[in-house]
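Lecture notes, structural biology module. Today: joint structure prediction for complexes of two components.
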Amino acid sequence: MRHSYGIMDERKILLYKPHLFLKGNNLLIFPSKDFHKWHGDIKEYIDGLYQINSINLENGKSININELNLASGLLTNITEELEHLFDAKRVSDFSFQYVSTLDEKYTKRRENWYTSDMMKCDMRIPVKPSITPWIQHQNMMEIIDQSAKEFTMVRRKKSKELTDPSINEKRI
Amino acid sequence: MRVSEGVSDGNIAELYNPEQFQEHEEVIVFTREDFHRTYNSIRGQIDYINKVDMHLDRVEEWKLMGYWTKILERINILDINMNSMFKEEPVQCHLDSYLYDTIKSSEKKIAVSANKVSVQLKHSI
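The predicted structure, tokenised, for the full assembly:
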């Protein structure tokens, strides 16, 4: 994200990297000390979420309900922090500042998120959905889409045969 | 947190609320568009996780195994968004949220502009 530090000087801001902004760009300006503190706070909560995951990472187990409740609590905290950002009356507490030192192996993105466990969840739909006009329409559109795909496939094959005589020769 | 909007003008930035900051205080400056995009993306991820959390029945613990990976994926995007604030290079979710945020043009606007064009043509003839 484009950002620049600056310093207040006679009710205006002197930018350290003015080349990043065009003339007339709308800007948002925060005090840098407060902003770093706020950023650190949210990072602390996110690292907390990763820590909940890391407990069971090595065992290959999933989390339990208590840990999910803990995670949703952390998310509520993040939401609160996000709201505090635009609350002018709120004064930051500078008694500590969090700097994330979490090992990268805990924050790594997994390749395949759609696991067999998720498939089980999707397969067992507990309530049979009632057939509404909207679902009927969706179903119809799916059929049309599929047939359109197949139709274009056939057409492409035919046009290839017409334009490329080598295919026909091979057949002969 | 104290915050102010402003407009860039060459080497300096003019503030709408200069009284928020002290003299010689160091500040950090973002463009409003970029910040809005990242902030909304973060809000979107949290909303998504909250929805999954709310719809999950606490009795069906076996479902958690599947849903936790989904939640983790969103946490990952959240983390990327937070890290991108102090990075120079753009991120992938930049484009996704940007497309989502675009304002649709309403039919009214099109009608008005069409009228204008026809009037101008008449005058020119």
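Point to remember: The two ends of chain B are 59 Å apart (CA to CA).
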